[in-house]
Design brief:
With 509 residues, the chain is mostly beta strands. The protein has 3 domains: 146 residues, Jelly Rolls, CATH 2.60.120.260; 148 residues, Jelly Rolls (Sandwich); 143 residues, Ribonuclease Inhibitor (Leucine-rich repeat, LRR (right-handed beta-alpha superhelix), Alpha-Beta Horseshoe). It has 2 helices and 33 strands. It starts with a strand and ends in a 13-residue tail after the last strand. Bound molecules: 2-acetamido-2-deoxy-beta-D-glucopyranose (12 copies). One 2-acetamido-2-deoxy-beta-D-glucopyranose binds next to loops. The site of one 2-acetamido-2-deoxy-beta-D-glucopyranose has 4 residues, from strand 30. One of its GO terms (cellular component) is membrane.
């Protein structure tokens, strides 16, 4: 096994037990498909129309509670693999817990819900398969932790090869969390996708806000083996991950301590693991070794009432996982564990160069009917790039071709297209574009420019002659006037200007 990056942290500070009231939750709570605002358990849920273009709001036919009663559904459209995105305003650099909720409710008139993908910014986050939960009458949640790289974060839904009916989403939450949470992760390169979060030895309802200040969900696990809470005198605090103190009220104590946890088979990947411990008595020596599968994870962990947490930032796991706690030699008492979290470490795919994104947004704005699926990151994930564009590979992701031939587009061509300096070809033929041809002389890589069969007016900009590599320039069947610049009549440039324009035959005086 390769050398692992391990970080350990012990909480040594002990603060007073008198807790201030929990801070209010900060962020956006979006009730997909809803038409009105609602307040549930202190969260103000907003209707989703302001955050998304495309899709249709639908009411579930079976009566269900609150936010689960509506969804937004997106057209499968012959399974064109296109994404539909929510754009949520965020604070650049802030850390967000993102939670998506899905509850099918039979909206597609099929028994079984569709399987599809969810995408965060330019990264494929997870395949959404709600089949089993839905069969059990349960909604499905996904939770991830990501740092905002810009002023908006996008969450997209997209059909994949398994999708057999319209994908949908029920709710979307973007919650700001403390900077210190999971901060051994380099959030510029990675995101975390939750696999499991459990309170061990706990059998009550899910622990969440206000116990957890960021409304993380701590599920009960192994309640049958728990030790009764009793007179605990635990005063943990100052864990970087800020777990709720309620998880330390119960624990698991079995010997030998072998936990098959997380309780599912994991895909081969790297994982962030955090385990939380606090002793419930202060006169013992509770020291043990922690191993994951057969690999030693931490030796001679000394657990006290002040608590300890150990975490691994990037640990490879695959299939079933077993956590083993073995008493150290000389320890007079067995091990215990209070809680654990496992996240898959998602490698972020990056994002399209901002300059190109801004320019494309302006091109989109100047079209009267841009392709509906032009939202989210233009290039990424690669299998879900925008209709009609192709992009470069490598660390700088640029748009290199634009082909919107015969898309029924009207409106004008924004001069901002001149900022997409990596473009090698522009195909806009057979549309109804009007207005002037912008100055494109900054597109030094441009080889092909097809504007034929539109209604462009004005003159052909002579600055096109400054693009050395231009090989094809087609502008026939527009409403162009003036003179065809003589600089364009050069060898190596295939120039097509007629029929269908109204050029002057004489040079102007
Ligand atoms: C869903 O139900 C609400 C209230 O009952 C109603 O206002 C809304 O028009 C319905 N939406 C659809 C898409 O049927
Ligand atoms: C979705 O989950 C169901 C139930 O667990 C399973 O039978 C099915 O194969 C899954 N679909 C995909 C595409 O993974
Ligand atoms: C994580 O946050 C804690 C508390 O703010 C801080 O002491 C620690 O240095 C941070 N660690 C990293 C790796 O940034
Ligand atoms: C826990 O106990 C309950 C009732 O005693 C039982 O129904 C359940 O199957 C047990 N669960 C496990 C995981 O042993
Ligand atoms: C809990 O422990 C603290 C010191 O750690 C002590 O001051 C306090 O009296 C104890 N409380 C109980 C109920 O044992
Ligand atoms: C997991 O993937 C890594 C890298 O792709 C590979 O080296 C390793 O053998 C895989 N492990 C298992 C158990 O499949
Ligand atoms: C342990 O806790 C008791 C009260 O529960 C307290 O009186 C005693 O001082 C504590 N001992 C240590 C070593 O902190
Ligand atoms: C541009 O798109 C049209 C329509 O989708 C297609 O027929 C054509 O081959 C494409 N041209 C290029 C150069 O990719
Ligand atoms: C342009 O618009 C007219 C009507 O406004 C329509 O008849 C024609 O089909 C459109 N042409 C293209 C190529 O979309
Ligand atoms: C091109 O981008 C620059 C900033 O990089 C901006 O100032 C300028 O207005 C843009 N040009 C157009 C035509 O949008
Ligand atoms: C373009 O020219 C055609 C005929 O020459 C005319 O019908 C049309 O109105 C013109 N369109 C624009 C936008 O100038
Ligand atoms: C072409 O231009 C000339 C002079 O600029 C104008 O008289 C004529 O009407 C135009 N023809 C068409 C078809 O627009």
């Amino acid at each position: 096994m390769s050398v692992l990056s391990l970080v350990f942290f012990f909480s040594l500070l002990t603060l007073s037990l008198s807790q201030p009231p929990p801070p209010p939750l900060k962020g956006f709570f979006i009730d997909c498909g809803a038409t009105e605002e609602s307040t549930i358990d202190g969260k103000v849920w907003l209707p989703d129309a302001a955050f998304v273009s495309g899709g249709t709001p639908k009411n579930l036919t079976t009566p269900v509670l609150d936010i689960l009663s509506t969804v937004r559904s997106f057209p499968l459209q012959n399974n064109l693999r296109k994404k539909f995105c929510y754009a949520v305003p965020v604070y650049r650099g802030a850390k967000y817990l993102v939670r998506t909720t899905y509850f099918y409710g039979g909206i597609n008139e099929r028994d079984s819900p569709p399987v599809f993908d969810q995408i965060i910014d330019g990264t494929l986050w997870r395949m959404v398969n709600t089949t089993e939960d839905y069969a059990n009458g349960m909604p499905t949640y996904f939770e991830g932790v990501f740092v905002a790289q810009g002023k908006f974060m996008s969450l997209c839904i997209a059909a994949n090869t398994y999708t057999d009916s319209d994908p949908f989403i029920t709710a979307l939450e973007f919650l700001i969390v403390e900077k210190s949470l999971y901060n051994s992760t380099d959030f510029g390169k990675y995101g975390l996708g939750l696999v499991a979060r459990h309170a061990f030895g706990f059998s009550g309802p899910i622990i969440r806000y206000p116990d957890d200040h960021f409304d993380r969900f701590w599920l009960p696990f192994g309640g049958n083996y728990s030790t009764p809470a009793g007179n605990r005198n635990i005063s943990v605090s100052s864990f970087w991950n800020l777990p709720p103190s309620k998880i330390f009220e119960t624990d698991l104590k079995v010997q030998p301590m072998e936990l098959n946890w997380p309780p599912l088979s994991l895909p081969n990947s790297t994982y962030y693991i955090a385990l939380y411990f606090a002793d419930d008595r202060n006169w013992s020596s509770r020291v043990f070794d922690v191993s994951i599968n057969t690999v030693s994870y931490y030796r001679e962990l000394n657990v006290t009432p002040a608590g300890a947490s150990v975490f691994a930032t990037r640990w490879p796991l695959s299939g079933a996982t077993k956590i083993t706690l073995t008493p150290a030699v000389g320890s007079n008492i067995g091990p215990l564990i209070n809680a654990g979290e496992v996240f898959e470490v998602l490698t972020l795919e990056g994002k399209t160069t901002t300059r190109d994104v801004i320019a494309l947004e302006k091109v989109k704005d100047s079209l009267k009917n841009p392709p509906l699926v032009w939202n989210g990151d233009p290039c990424l994930p690669r299998q879900y790039s925008w209709t009609g564009i192709s992009c470069s590979k490598g660390p700088q992701i640029r748009v290199i071709t634009l082909n919107l031939t015969n898309m029924g587009l009207s409106g004008s061509l924004s001069p901002s297209i001149a900022n997409m300096t990596a473009l090698t070809s522009i195909f806009l033929g057979n549309n109804n574009l009007t207005g002037p041809i912008p100055d494109l002389s900054s597109l030094k890589m441009l080889e092909m420019l097809h504007l034929e069969n539109n209604q462009f007016s004005g003159e052909i900009p002579s600055s096109l002659g400054a693009i050395d590599g231009l090989r094809e320039l087609f502008v026939q069947n527009n409403n162009l006037t003036g003179l065809v610049p003589s600089i364009l009549k050069k060898p190596g440039l295939n120039l097509k200007t007629s029929p269908g324009n109204n050029f002057s035959s004489l040079p102007p005086s």
